[in-house]
Records
---
Amino acid sequence: MLISNFLTSRKSDRHFKNKKINKDSLSRLEQVFNLMDNESVSFKLYENGKDVFEALDGHAGYNGVMIEAPAYITVTFKGDSNKDKVVGMYKAEDVISLLEKEGLGSCWIGLFNTSESVKEKAFQNKDANLILAVGYPKPKNPFVQEEKSERLPVEDIVFSEEIGNPISIDELEQLGLDDVFYYARFAPSTLNSQSWRFVIRQNQVVLYLKEVNGKLYYEDMGIIMYYFEQMYNMTFHKGEWKLEDNFVMHDGYVKIATMNI
């Protein structure tokens, strides 16, 4: 698969057909969720989309705007640590890959300001951290240009040896990483914060989380790790992130993980 095709397949869908998910797909999803249920994260699918939507409308989503879908999947981190958030979101991206294979679209919905009582009403699970709206996407009008979020240029997110030290596009081309970093910028992030930063250092890519408006979006690190790793492995031999044992803030940045290149 080409890198550009991978990104196209990861686009969020916000409009779904009024059609239930077929039973074979539901069965396969449930089987995988049971296998993925581990010490870091758990997933559960809710077919009663109308009930969930009505319970969350005005309480979840971007500025309280909920996305209506025939089904929803809850993502619940088993622990409260920041590492649980990173690992949980990395595994959640695997769920999106599974949904794509079933012909299903999805869209992330935050529960950051949703009360426990509302979550209990919607899912009988007050600890749910995030949800995916899931369904068969409506066809998109090819003559209507989709609204796109602005993205930081590569030179603002990738550095040489240390953060703040620019790296040239020529150097990235020599390493064969120019396309990977170009497309990695399009990974989704909380409020389009794009808080990931990369440093090329001694045959390694080091991932950092930047503090944005006093907040650290650890969940976004799991997403960018998945995107980068998938695209890197389309071009090179298998690369794999190694998480830091401890996440420590230094000068507004937290070192998250390292990959040998």
---
Amino acid sequence: MRREKQKGVALLTVLLLVATIAVLAVAMTEIMTRSLGRAAAGEARDQGFWALAGLEAAAIGYLEEQGEAIDQPVSPLFQQPVVLPFEGGTATISFSERSNCFNVNDLVARSEDEGGYVTDQAAGGRFADLVEAVGGSRNAGQQLAARIADFIDADDDPNASSQDDYDYRRREVPYRTASTLLASVSELRAISGFSRDVYRPLAGYLCALPTDEVQMLNVNTLTPEDAPLLKAAAGDALTMSGAMQIIAQRSPAGYDDVSAFLEQPLLAGRDLPSDMSTMLTTKSNHIEMEIVVQTAAGRLRQVSRISRADGEPIVIERRIGERLP
């Protein structure tokens, strides 16, 4: 009887061991499967990032080859995207003209005496004109311009209608002002006064370039939607309807130079700002390149802002990820 009981215990022990080993084998198989899946996905994702880097470098080389041909009023570069297949996926490349915007960093100017940036009053006036042109009030535009300048400048002295570092540090979630040029237009949401309702109508007309210089408008690529930018550059010398009329009546051949634009009949006799010619150009100084790579790992999107202001195309901004709503 005892021997039979021992046999039963031994059998039960063996069955438990077999069951345990089976469970461990299933768990290890699942772990290995997941590990192999992650490795494959990581490899495919790395391939996508390498594709982004390679395509960007190739596109820069292409822009160098094109040279001044890009500056045609209707450049083939901006007409339709290019689809390129490669091993393991496809890439879609599209170019857009992005010279026409107001550089928010133009609201300050470098001061050697102050050791940083100080408010640029003339640029503040143009920003106020832009706010008014998109439906806001000029007074509100002046206040917003002052707040941007104070967010960027090096001192802790707020203007009459703005706030500085001390005010931001007193908030429920405290933070400090940038005290340097903005890297993205989205940073405006951190500045007092830029609520969602204020930011959204303006965002499409703004850019944040790595310089405190004015962003020149390309008179050959202005669209009716860009009329507020032209109105802001001309100040009180031009109405919104006048700006839209000038853009609408541009010939397909465009203008040979800025002088030809300023001498057209629609601008004759107007008291234009003396420095308006310095705010205009016939060249595409800034180009936005969007690359979308589709691989087994999914979709990768990169947007690169390319500057041609100094002749050679260079990437001054790069964003990876989907566009936020």
